[in-house]
């Protein structure tokens, strides 16, 4: 509060009387001009775990992951799968797709993806389309001879992985490593296996350095 001293102290006394029985222990301050006032706030919050999270056997000081809901100054922690049951709210998943025109083979795309992301899962999806799965989240589908389709469930992390995957694919055709690898493949019958392996190792080093 700030104002004429006598009136402010009178208001302070009335407020203290009004909230005297409050469990929160409300404090009313009436500092003088230029007087520093130090306020202390509680930093800890207590949340009640319900549903699947409450059923888990959790060790002391373990970290729990879930949805934290706040209502009427109370906090509740629950598994996203329990949201509809305990709150009546529903969840949805946003699936994003991006189509990219290509003029290189899927094997060359896979080679570049493995060089950047490490392991890439090569398989067939439900529609019998050859699919490369990147980081377990982004699918690169060979939908047509000259086309790839990226598909992923949108989130902060998967969107970044998808952006990186798309940027990498768009740069494959102009990559020096792609040119060297293609030339090596076309003249494979004129080189010994040892020479091919040495060239592949050189391309991998240049790819990582780039």
Describe the 3D structure:
This protein is an alpha+beta fold and about 210 residues long. About 35% of the residues lie in helices and about 20% in strands. It has helices spanning about 5-20, 50-55, 85, 105-115, 155-170, 175-185, 195-210; strands at about 45-50, 65-70, 75-80, 95-100, 120-125, 130-135, 140-145, 145-155. The strands form 2 sheets. It has a 5-stranded antiparallel beta sheet. Strands 1-3-2 form a 3-stranded mixed beta sheet. Helix 6 (about 175-185) runs antiparallel to helix 7.
Q: Count of DSSP E strands?
A: 8
Secondary-structure element series: HEHEEHEHEEEEHHH
What characteristic shape results from the CA principal axes?
elongated
Largest sheet composition: 5 strands, antiparallel
Number of helix segments?
Answer: 7
Strand content: 15-25%
**Structural Rg:** 31 Å
Mean pLDDT rating: 82
Structural class, from secondary structure content? alpha+beta
Oligomer state of the chains in this structure: single chain
Instruction: Give the low-confidence spans.
Output: 186-193
Percent of residues in helices comes to: 25-40%
| Side-by-side strand order of the widest sheet | 4-8-7-6-5
N/C terminus separation: 62 Å
Question: TL;DR of this structure?
Answer:
By secondary structure, this protein is of the alpha+beta class. The chain has helices at residues 5-18, 52-55, 83-87, 106-117, 156-170, 176-186, 193-209; strands at 47-49, 67-71, 74-78, 95-101, 120-124, 130-134, 138-144, 147-153.
